Amino acid sequence: MCHSVDVTDPASTVEAEPAPINISALLGEALSKSDMCWIRTPEFTRLVWHAYDRDAILLVTGPGEQQIPPLPENVEVVLRSKDAGTRLLTVEAKAVVLPPEHEMWPVAAAALAAERLNATDDQVARWRETGNIYVLHPFGMPIERPGAYAVEPPTTPLVASRETTGGRLPAHVGGRFAGRARRRG
Q1: Is 125 helix (H, G, I), strand (E, B) or coil?
Q2: pLDDT at 95
Q3: Are 92 and 138 in contact (CB under 8 A)?
Q4: Which domain of life is it from (predicted)?
Q5: 95/91 Cα distance (integer angstroms)
Q6: Which pLDDT belongs to residue 4?
Q7: Contacts by 44-47 with C-beta closer than 8 Å and gap 24+?
Q8: What is the CATH architecture of 23-148?
């Protein structure tokens, strides 16, 4: 006679509910672990670097920085998993330009400067004169989250930019190293 409490009926077709997800914690962790995200508007989708400070996403644009068109009031922010590199969350955010005279501008500029790779000494002064600092405030429930992704992920054509490799490709692309190894051997 079996007295196990752990017995499951194999004929049962009831699926278990997924464990609840703390969206705020997931959003904060995704933003603090990765310094890249996609900004999606009806007109464009761009991969941008950002800083995360005080529950806000900070972006800087302008000469010598990432070139993105002016942001509309509402944007979608697509966050990736740092571990797997896959899409993790898509949230709506309100975009606000932070004017240089605002009391939070120096705090935002300092947070961005700390995250900026290959920084120059004059970057904060340049941002003040010719750049824009955007503050993105996520709101509402995520559009996409673990367990609830769009059936077909959105595809975006690549946009040519100055960062694109032009002319001859590097040696490691296209097997040019492999051809040299065969000739030598």
Answers
A1: helix
A2: 96
A3: yes
A4: Bacteria
A5: 12
A6: 47
A7: 44/68, 44/69, 44/159, 45/78, 45/154, 45/156
A8: Roll (2.30)
B/e letters for 39-49, b = 16+ CB within 10 Å, e = fewer, are: bbbeeebbebb
Given a cut of 80, whether residue 149 has pLDDT beyond it is: no
> Buried b / exposed e across 19-30, counting CB within 10 Å, b at 16+?
eeeebeebbeeb
Pairing, β 132-144 against β 56-61: antiparallel
Q: Three-state SS for 46? A: strand
pLDDT digits over 54-107, tens only?
789 999 998 888 889 999 999 999 888 777 777 788 889 999 999 999 999 999
Rounded distance between C-alpha atoms, residue 153 and residue 87, angstroms: 9
Domain positions in the chain = 23-148
**pLDDT more than 90, % of the chain:** 29
> H helices within the chain, ranges in order?
23-33, 105-115, 123-130, 176-184
Per-residue pLDDT, averaged over 36-49, amounts to 91
Tokens of 112: 């961005």
